[in-house]
Automatic annotation (TrEMBL), chain A:
It is a peripheral membrane protein. The keyword Nucleotide-binding applies. Transmembrane segments: none annotated. GO terms for biological process: peptide transport. SUPFAM superfamilies: P-loop containing nucleoside triphosphate hydrolases. Its main location: membrane. This is ABC transporter domain-containing protein. The lineage of its organism: Bacteria, Bacillati, Bacillota, Bacilli, Bacillales. Keywords: ATP-binding, Cell membrane, Membrane, Nucleotide-binding, Transport.
UniProtKB/TrEMBL annotation, chain B:
It comes from Peribacillus loiseleuriae. This is Peptide ABC transporter permease. Pfam families: BPD_transp_1, BPD_transp_1_N. InterPro entries: BPD_transp_1_N (IPR045621), MetI-like (IPR000515), MetI-like_sf (IPR035906). Belongs to the binding-protein-dependent transport system permease family.
Amino acid sequence: MKKPILQIENLTTSFKIKDKYYMAVDHVSFSVSENEIVAVVGESGCGKSALALSIMRLHNNQRTKIEGEIKYKERNIVSITEAQMNKVRGKDIGIIFQEPLTALNPLMTVGDQIEENLTFHTKLSKEKKRLRTLELLTQVGIPFPTRTYKQFPHELSGGMRQRVMISIAIACNPSLVIADEPTTALDVTIQAQILELLQSIQKETKMGIILITHDLSVVAEVADRIVVMYAGQVVEIGTVKQIFAKPLHPYTRSLLNSIPSAVTNKQRLHVIEGIVPSIVNMNRDSCRFSPRIPWIPRHAHEESPELHEVAPDHLVRCTCYKHFYFQDHRGVKITNGIT
Amino acid sequence: MWKFILRRFLVMIPQLFLLSLIVFALAKQMPGDALTGISMDPRISPERIEELREKAGLNDPWYEQYGRWISGIVHGDFGTSYTHKIPVSEVIAERIWNTVFLALITLILTYLLAIPMGVLSGRYNETWIDKVVTGYNYLGFATPIFIFALIMLFVFGFSFEWFPTGGSVSSKVDARTFAYYLSKFHHVILPAFSTALITTVGTVQYLRNEIIDNKFKEYTRTARSKGIPDNKVYTRHILRNSLLPIAAFLGYEITGLVGGTVIIETIFSYPGVGQLFVSSIGLRDFSVVTAIVMMLGFATLLGTLLSDIILSMVDPRIRIE
Ligand SMILES: Nc1ncnc2c1ncn2[C@@H]1O[C@H](COP(=O)(O)OP(=O)(O)OP(=O)(O)O)[C@@H](O)[C@H]1O
Ligand code: SF4
Ligand SMILES: [Mg+2]
């Protein structure tokens, strides 16, 4: 069994909205081991970014409450001081954001922004820092490192900026990198390159990666395990094999069914009707996904479904998946579907 | 860069031409002219005045008068002041450095007050310190500058006698001595401080909002994700980005201040261009008035240019070629 780097247990993140706290991440538990890629998937608003920022403790702490445990190598980083946390951020855990243009300081050169990491976590001399930065730029596939070193973010293309962002995240050789939709803002061709880059870096450093995405097709190729989130909760966890071969939860199945390539020519692309409820208007007393599959009779759903282990390492929330089926646009049950 | 500046100067020519037409027209519209004063004098016959008018060219068609005036300006000749009996350019030259000095000190004080206040209230917004600064801002916005300046003059000038109540330098000191410069400073500090205390509120408010805006920006989050302590996140990232628009405003600010000294110089009897402007209007010394307006117009255009140049220097995203 591989050594876990990060163990998240019952992580609950609540935001204060008009004097009341609302959960955006609701008792989430999973772990990441070294050299592993764990994908967190779910539609927009499921709480993926809220989860990522909670791990780094980057939320506005006046308006956010974080409960549960996040253990980085056995140490609970939820309860450590801000100064101690600053020694973890950037050094032990790196993060890559979705939009590389806004995530970089417009007034600072690329070189300075990468070197900053080294300034705060190492005792390297100015010259050594520069060499390390150039090395990083080469490692992330920047064609002219010495030139890019002196450039400003706006002078680079989206893909190049994301490479810079990656080099910032990996500057201090962290054991864990969180990538929050690192390819969503990029062109399709660039997306694949960025994912390959992350994989190749992982090969060298053996770091663990949390890859957040709403694109399941990306996941199949790169991830080891998948965490499916819906409305702040984990609804299903399993290995890539388990999830793709035997998806159980209706939400996982709906997501899989909405991937164009997974649809046989005869079938219509399945669209999940409705939207993810907002954290303020969410009904937390019953199953959160049931309103979006109205054709499943009420009695088939559990009251407040729990995660069950259905196979080793394969957990799914609720049991009513046994009764779940898809319906086509005319309301006819699909029996010969892929799931 | 030089091409850009040259181009901007070329664009200024039609702008200044338009301004000169307006200024000239307004000066002509105003009741009375340079000879109105002596025409009241019963010892001088109306015939004599008419003769003087004719000689001064005041009876010529407006375009001829305008032509004479504008061609003079182009050659650096703003005419002769009727009251001072010396060339207008000399009258202004005597005063302009006082005004520039006052404006500069005011500007420095404005920023010295604005930066700490703006940064503190932005960084700790919604706390007591922010409430104090915001309260001060409301007061500042609500207080008319001339009333505040009068109070300052009364309290620190007349009651406490800490500062002189008029002039720009003591008559007891010799020029170009240390005491002379000290005295200049002593004279400028009360008007400058009185102005700065009020005009700073705009910058404070702006900076506060910029800081609040920038501290939730994504690049700030990236900076935090590197493990940079909060203080350093401010000094290295947030502050620079927040000061950017203010630096860009510097050019406008300077010209605004030069124009704004009119009231302050009058209240503090400070012999600058602003005070000259007011007294010249009273004396119908239009050659001086028009020269000052033209000068302020030119200064405003220069300020705009200066702002653009500063912005291109502090913001790498903006390049002028
Ligand atoms: N700072 C915040 N204050 C209040 N509510 C928030 C805050 N951040 C996120 N939320 C809410 O929490 C929920 C989860 O948001 P989150 O950004 O984590 O979604 P996501 O899964 O990352 O979606 P996306 O794919 O759009 O990035 C949403 O309903 C969002 O409105
Ligand atoms: S109760 Fe039904 S809809 Fe809800 S989680 Fe279980 S299967 Fe899904
Ligand atoms: Mg997100």
